[in-house]
Amino acid sequence: MISDCWVVLKIQLIVLEIFPFFQVILKMANVTNNATLPLKKIPLFSIDASAIEECNRHVQEDPTVWLGNTACFKNDLQDVCLKREVVAQLQHVYSHKVEAECKPVTNQRVTGRCWIFAALNAIRIPFCKSLGLEEFEFSQAYIFFWDKLERCNYFLNIMVDCCRSGEPVDGRLMSFLLHDPINDGGQWDMFFNLVNKYGLMPKKCFPESQSSENSGTMNSVLRHKLREYTKEIRTLLEDKAAPDDEVRALLRRQMLEVYRILAVTIGVPPSAFTWQYYDKTKAYKEIGPISPKEFYEQHVKPVFDVEQKVCLVNDPRPSNPYGRLYSVDCLGNMAGGRMTIYNNQPIETLMKVSGDSIRDGEAVWFGSEVDKGFVRKLGIQDTEAFDYRRLLGVDVNKGLNKAERLFYGDSQMTHAMTFTACHFQPSNEVDDGAPEKEADALPVKWRVENSWGEERGEKGYHVLSRPWFEQFVFEVVVDRKYVPQDVLDVFTTPVTVLPAWDPLGALARNRITRLD
């Protein structure tokens, strides 16, 4: 009993001795915690009761708010704001048009393959003319397969470079690239890489699959595997200075797995095919056996040579002067392939060369931001299509210019389509009052072949106004013969590489650009 009391007393004495020490420790911890806690910042404006009361009073005093709410209760905001006079003004009548638009209107379904469809739609026009065809489609799935394979390999090679250079996995570059390692978007130079290496083939010889028409699940699997492969690459290069042969062996094993995924989801493209068809006179024709590369070289290239096409962009940001060549870091689809490059020019240059191409009967591939000023059901693209001010009391898409929209993240390329016609007004007058010559005029509206089926617009074709072109078209691809020599000379100048997240690379990062 006495010994137990002694033990308790001893413990109490020890606690009393060390208590001041613990007090100091706790006080230091408290100071540290208080130092790291953020101070409560007093906002300049708060949503309090008086603010809400003011807002309610503001809308209650305006009778158009009630009327607008009633109209929008069961109707889409854009349908309510649509201006009838714009619909009546933009008719599908054009002064210049390509000789024959091919059928059927294509449909990219639930994918972001607009850049592939737009390019193949442009190519099939002279191809159909040369073979006397009324209906034809190139195989979009064929290009899609090789793009997926090449793009996965391109991404993994970038990951090797990033890991070897010590790029932190949680740094901005790696975080940006790993956020979406694979998607469906693309650029003209990427299309060039694929056609130049793999050629083309008819759709009937390699038709669509479920995954080529609805790529979401396939892309999800590929994204997971690419992130997993990045971890393997990083582990290999962190643990030791792995030689190239060892890294190459790892990439080979990874790409074998990617190929198998694509073989299951899209199918393995044939190395040779025989194409049987009837021309417009109903005469039987046959081409083959022939490889896709031979098919392009012998039957497509003579009427549409991808090597002769050049890409011009309009980026009016002050940081990117006109007359310069630009690229975007880590933007591409083929290791060792052509860089994705942009020749930056004023918008008038893009309109001029596009108009000259249409006037000569050649369709034009172009990239734009599709959803602003876009009447989806009617296929009308015009900056004045909607009158938001009368309904909402504010202007929409008018407070920022084109450069500012790029700078503040309000605009970027989201969709690629094809110009097949345009309309000139030779009677327009220039500033000095003299009549404007047609050769010097710029088109006032354009006919657009889209790849969303026949449901929108005039059986799949849109009409696009000149103001919309000026504000939301960023890129065109035309034959170099329509481009002035001083603009072509820019392609021989040094390339300025923009960051990987720059909006100029947006079209190649889109997952799905079909708007349902």
From TrEMBL:
Catalytic activity: Inactivates bleomycin B2 (a cytotoxic glycometallopeptide) by hydrolysis of a carboxyamide bond of beta-aminoalanine, but also shows general aminopeptidase activity. The specificity varies somewhat with source, but amino acid arylamides of Met, Leu and Ala are preferred
Keywords, alphabetical: Cytoplasm, Hydrolase, Protease, Thiol protease
One of the GO BP terms on file: proteolysis
GO cellular component: cytoplasm
SUPFAM superfamilies listed in its UniProt record: Cysteine proteinases (SSF54001)
PROSITE patterns: THIOL_PROTEASE_CYS (PS00139)
EC number: 3.4.22.40
Compartment(s): Cytoplasm
Gene Ontology terms, MF aspect: cysteine-type aminopeptidase activity; cysteine-type endopeptidase activity
Residues forming the catalytic site: C114, H415, N450
Sequence similarity: Belongs to the peptidase C1 family.
Protein name, as recorded: Bleomycin hydrolase
Originating organism: Hyalella azteca (Amphipod)
Taxonomic path: Eukaryota, Metazoa, Ecdysozoa, Arthropoda, Crustacea
